[in-house]
Design goal:
The structure holds two protein chains of two kinds. By secondary structure, chain A is of the alpha/beta class. In chain A, 43% of the residues lie in helices and 22% in strands. Chain A has eight helices and twelve strands. Chain A folds into two domains: 121 residues, 3-Layer(aba) Sandwich (Rossmann fold); 96 residues, Orthogonal Bundle (Arc Repressor Mutant, subunit A), CATH 1.10.10. By secondary structure, chain B is of the alpha+beta class. Chain B has 13 helices and twelve strands. In chain B, the strands form three sheets. In chain B, strands 2-1-5-4-3 form a five-stranded antiparallel β-sheet, with helices on both faces. In chain B, strand 11 and strand 12 form a beta hairpin. In chain B, helix 4 runs antiparallel to helix 5 and helix 7 packs antiparallel against helix 8. The longest helix of chain B is centred in the middle third of the chain and has 68 residues. The radius of gyration of chain B is 45 Å and the shape is elongated. Chain B starts with 8 loop residues before the first helix and ends in a 14-residue tail after the last strand. Classes of the chains: A alpha/beta, B alpha+beta. At the A-B interface, helix 6 and helix 8 of A face helix 8, strand 6, helix 9 and helix 11 of B.
Chain lengths: 229, 512
Amino acid sequence: MTTPAETLLIVEDEAQIRKFVRISLEAQGYQVLEARLGEEGLATCLASPPHLVILDLGLPDLDGMDFIRRLRAWSTLPILVLSVRASETEKIQALDAGANDYVTKPFGIGELMARIRVLLRKEERRATPSAQFSFPGLRVDLARREVEVDGTAVSLSRKEFALLSLLVASQGQVLTHDRILREVWGAGHQEDTHYLRVLVGNLRQKLGDDPMRPRFILTVQGVGYRLAV
Amino acid sequence: MPLVSGRHPLRRLVPYLFALVVVAITVASAFLLPWLFPHASRSLLFLTGVLVVAARSSLGPSLLASFLSFLAFNYFFTEPVHTFKVADDGDVTTLAFFLLVSAISGNLASRMRQEMAERRASLERLSQLYAFSRRLASAVGADEVLDALTDQLALLPGSPPGAIRIFLLATGEVPPGISPPREVRRRGDERALAPAEVQAVWKRRSPEPVHLGLWLFLPLSTDRGAIGLVALADIQDAERRESARNLCDQAAVALDRTRLVTDLAGARLAAETEQLRAALLSSVSHDLRTPLAAIIGSATSLLEYGEAFSAADRRDLLTTVANEAQHLDRHIQNLLDMTRLGQGTLQLKRDWVDLRDLIAGALARLTEVLAGLAVEVRISPEVPLLWVHGTLIEQALVNLLDNAAKFSPAGGRIAIQAERDGQEVVIDLRDQGPGIPEAERERIFDMFYSVSRGDRANRTGSGLGLAICRGMIAAHGGQILALPGEAGWGTCMRLSLPLVNAEITPPPEGTP
């Protein structure tokens, strides 16, 4: 089901982690490039650009944030960050610096694969843009501003729809509070997370989404939200 | 009251004035006497006056009184009247008696009064000393001792010192006495006392008082050597020096005692910390090894005999590896959290959080642990958004749920209920486990208790979980209690969080 030609670069200094990620990715039909150091990784990105970069934030030679900024200076290729659990701040910083998503170490391979698939699918989407999105139980037409849950049309307010389109367009990529607040309310509302909580609550209610077992909108504690895909 | 006391020069004249007045009254009475008591002797009346003066004053005024009495007696009452001539030998004798009586009684009276004054002063000194030693005995810290000493020195009988400085070595300095004592008390005027002088006296280590310029230096010495120095200005005479020295010696003993108490408390704390560290270490290594044993065992089994196993068995073993590794991860998270709590470096990053998200997050993280248990969640719609550090509260919920799951019987029910109660949110977490004996309900949150108990048989883990829970909830100003479950069965963990900022009701959607 995956495109065999897709190449992934993993920048990680831990050989054990590189190994199991490579084995699993190759089993899924991806081609895998490896880099132990940040500079190596950047060089590889230049020499033979991959479709996606898996980046460990704790590299011996280069700060993870610097890696992201330097890569973002000339490339938009998706970056998936591997970070240790302790710091939410670190994750948010990485996302703000231009990373597309993150996986917390230690992680299960299933989670990593899911994130990779989301990012690659999104890349694919960018090539052939469309205003229609379909997920199990949820259909959204951005152009017509139509939303259907399990085949039933749902009417959303302007802000609810703005939030849903943002989530839908990111296709399962995590969205930070900051970014949602900026895009839905505009600049200067970065502190108003309570607006966001209430809006998410309302949207979930209209979508018939149980906050205890959400089908559509997942909370990423301390970071933001993502669409369940 | 003694008429002799008082420092003002004019006040010294008061007794003499008194003598004059008494003699004047005597003369007046002597004129009236023949009408009242015809047979009484005038000379006895004058003698009484002299005695009154002698009893109330000292030698001088009584001599004056006797001399004046004689003159008045002679002038007004002896023949020839209104002259100072003495016609009769008896009158000369009277004069001699007057002088003699006044000398003896005046002397006696003044000595008696002086003795009384001295006795009163010494009584006062004694009671002051008594109060001082009582203050020292009840002092729990060096500060109180130093205060008492300063107060007492300022009350030194005679004239108090113009300035008091106390220097003391820092406590717990090892090796002791390397650095000079620091000034810890200062009273009286601000005259200069060069640190070099203090240093010089200190280096001499004299057990005796040392005079240096205007200053008198007294050592504060104990059995373990000198611990400080007292400097007093304007104390030159031996008597006051000795009193001051006495006070300093008493204070030094008291200081020594308070230091011993401090040292003891320190030693006990160190021992307890050491004990806790040992218990923690053993518990932690146990908790880390238990899942590791399962992981290593399963992984090596698969490596060695994997091909011989059925697909189901292989999958089973691999599931063990994955689950135990996650178990290990939770332990490590607990250790990290505990370190942050213990170091006090935990910083709350408060934000608006939906309690449902926190509970959902905790349940999601414990999917494997909670498999086979029925979890019921009821959250009252009254519960507002919480202004908390979401991940910490989620971690606390994870620990509570993890704990509840450990004690739940197979197929047991765990109920989570959240309600608003005035200015706080109360979250109850009920399980159907064996419950907690009343005596232990408070102690299970005590890290040292749960760790040292180390209830391995029930696989309760390190017991850090609950201590961390309480720490995280306490950091938010909330509290957590273990209560008996419904109908005497199981446990109800009650977590209450104050609603900070609750008055800021989030606006309805889309207002701004």
